[in-house]
Amino acid sequence: MLAIVGLVIVIVGCQTVTPPDSFARPMPSTAALPPGLVGVNAVTLTDSATRDRQFDQIAADRFRAVRIQIEWDLIERTPGQFDWGETDSLVNGAASRGLAVLGVLSYAPSWAVPPQYRTLVHPAPADAGPWADFVAQAAKRYSNVIRNWEIWNEPNIDDSFAPGPNLALYSSMLKASYQAIKSVDPQSVVVTGGTSPAVDNPTEMSPVTFVKGLYDNGAGDFFDAVAMHPYSTPELLTTEGTSDTSNSNRAIKDVSELMASEGQGGKQIWFTEFGASTATPGAVAPDLSGQQVGVSPQRQSEILTNGINYLRSLQNGGPIFLFDFRDVETGSRNVEYNYGLVQSDFTAKPALAAVQALLG
Predict the structure, then answer these.
(1) Residue 58 sits in a domain of what CATH number?
(2) Using an 8 Å Cβ cutoff, are 181 and 139 in contact?
């Protein structure tokens, strides 16, 4: 449902894949993040002017993990030439403050995309080969920092895997990613791309249809956990729905039942995006047919606390990453710009204190 804001990079020249000394720190004994941990997404970390302040505040506010995009299209703009500078800054900024990183490997450069799809937003790669090479490079570079990896962002919708979800292609990418990452660190955790709330139609797949397709394409043994984005706004996440709607409560149950039927009920579901926008109440993102709406700051607090408590109550629930830590532009009628726990000037919204009360 929600496309991550892309990184803005100033190209400073191509670099080798030798990790800087600052990444050479001992790996923790346990790779997997604990169930119920609450971390954050932080798309405005791409603003270098406020990056240090934002990392400092995330740590000071007692969040223990951050979800960071590792974007192929920004790192390998030309085949075989890698510029890791901006991504290094993001990863090292988190690691230097003791924040665990969930690395989201995502988005193909134009040279790796079929020519007819190069003008689309976030097109899928032509095949899994070049993708697997990039994943291997990223896994080696950040092996002492990132031990939890998510493979793509919302691959069940056309906004993130244009021109639309392709189960055979994504399954091959997932298999290749799993093998590349595990060859570097066998104890690392590989998570499927978080699914957006959706229903089955020509350009989207519901979460359960998408996950079933992974099993049908032989990818069931190539992930350690399933990821979902259980947005529920304006309703509470505990609000039940039917399987023919994009209701996230129902979707979690459907996916859990599917995993159990495949003999994988012991695997967790990670919730790698969850949030509510405080755009002008009633504001709607027009390009998503009303799926995203704005709510009051108080309602945001209610949605987040209800959702965190519900997700923690699930037997198969994993970590939770709130979207987002900071607004892109507080007061904008763009719903996606107002998901933060703090405003764009770092003023806390009521939701920050409400969430902190649940952190322990």
Answers:
(1) 3.20.20.80
(2) yes
